[in-house]
User: Fold this.
Amino acid sequence: MGERKGFPLRLDPEVYDALQRWAGTELRSLNAQIEFLLRRALADAGRLPGDRGDTDARSRKDKEKRR
Assistant:
């Protein structure tokens, strides 16, 4: 994957809280949840190169349905 890049991210407090709760229910850190969602959005938009676009079984099934 290469070196990871860090940057500050400003979020609305309500968005932050919702993401934190969602991450907790999926047993991920907040950072991992945000990266997961970004990767899924990139894959759905066809903008993520390589096999890393299939972030979970649901996204694979959704792609199969679209064919």
